[in-house]
Amino acid sequence: MTRLVLPRIGLAFALAAAWLGACRSLATAAAPTGPLEAQVRFEREDGEPLPPIADADWLAAWPAWLSSCQALASPHNPRRHTWLAVCDDAQRLVPRGGAQVRDFFARHMDRYRVLALEARADPDATPREAWSPARGARVREHSSGLVTGYYEPVLAGSRQRVAPFVVPVYRPPPVLPTAARAELEASGQLRGQELLWVREAVEAFFLEVQGSGRIQLTDGTSIRLAYAANNGQPYRSIGRWLVAQGELAPDQVSLQAIRDWARAHPRRVRELLDQNPRVVFFRELPLGDADAGPVGALGVALTPGVSVAIDPRFLPLGAPLLLYTSAPASGEPLARIVVAQDTGAAIRGALRIDWFWGQGTLAEEISGRQHAQGSVRLLVPRGVAPAALL
């Protein structure tokens, strides 16, 4: 897609994850190349019962699915013909309950279990030979991957540097810098590119991690900030650095724990943030519908508890998914229907899911706790091979 894709990094992943009897037919997407790469295999499920998803959750997912259809059935979508019939039928349905939504997907779509294949290749083979069994590649199959959460931060801010708003959030300079965060801060290269000001450096950093957010300005108005560019540097986890320094135990790393550490060690905040050389630049957008989420990579507003970010090399943007994982607070088994409407720089792999939980404090709390294994079923229009949608 030519659309600007948000290189947001799912919060829990960015801070901690680095530590951290049916008839079936098969369809396999094109394999990436390299000495250690992931493939995806789609295993069709016919006749197996749907997971125990509550009627309320089926119904809650319907508006998000209709939003996906706006993009999938658009003339700008090169795969429009594969989605058009099912989206046309969806537009005509006004469900009165979750059972109607469930039945719609059961009638119109095939269900595929998503499996990730990992091969460790013969080091003497060429990249393509490395995938050949004749060259001795060892393939492991995974049925689950990491599920994390993200949210839309809501911060107080000012258009002028006036206490307590003394931490800048930057717009892209005319020529994007390639220097690391520490050098940009020390040299003052970004001076004059201040888009607005917020209270705390660690909050501005988390805004960069999420890639978008809302700012409540001193004049009472609110705006959105959206990702615009970055300095081309790699992302490095500040949570991992705190663990390496002995400041936090591996199982303590969370947004809340990092914020608490920063407030307890104000003189070391700059040292902490400089461990991540990447700087994200933002652009201002009008708030628009205050009840709507930020716009994801699909080009539609994200829906709390329904929209997820995926790796579009392995799962099609816009598609509905059945997600089996654990509840963020209780750890109890959780099955939901979600919709793939976003992407992220750290969301890599067939089974890597980042779940959008909304805006503000509660969403921050939930997304910070969302860190579990999960398995995925992909729903595609009847008779369409999943690989044809990638």
Give the SSE map.
Layout: H1 11-17, E1 26-28, E2 36-45, H2 55-72, H3 80-92, H4 98-108, E3 109-120, E4 138-142, E5 145-152, E6 154-158, E7 167-170, H5 181-187, E8 194-198, H6 201-210, E9 212-217, E10 222-230, H7 238-244, H8 255-264, H9 269-273, E11 280-286, E12 307-309, E13 320-326, E14 333-342, E15 353-359, H10 360-369, E16 371-381
Parallel strand pairs: 5-15, 6-9, 12-14
Antiparallel strand pairs: 1-2, 2-3, 3-4, 3-16, 5-16, 6-8, 7-8, 9-10, 10-11, 12-15, 13-14, 13-16
Quick recap:
This protein has ten helices and 16 strands. It has 390 residues and is α+β, with helices and mostly antiparallel strands.
What does this entry look like structurally?
This protein has helices at about 10-15, 55-70, 80-90, 100-110, 180-185, 200-210, 240-245, 255-265, 270-275, 360-370; strands at about 25-30, 35-45, 110-120, 140, 145-150, 155-160, 165-170, 195-200, 210-215, 220-230, 280-285, 305-310, 320-325, 335-340, 355-360, 370-380. It has about 400 residues and is an alpha+beta fold. The protein has two domains: about 10-145 and about 305-360 and about 370-390, RlpA-like domain (Barwin-like endoglucanases, Beta Barrel), CATH 2.40.40; about 150-285, Beta Barrel (Ribosomal Protein L25, Chain P), CATH 2.40.240.50. A six-stranded mixed β-barrel has the order 5-15-12-14-13-16, surrounded by four helices. A six-stranded mixed beta sheet has the order 7-8-6-9-10-11, covered by helices on one side. Residues about 1-35 and about 125-135 have low confidence and may be disordered.
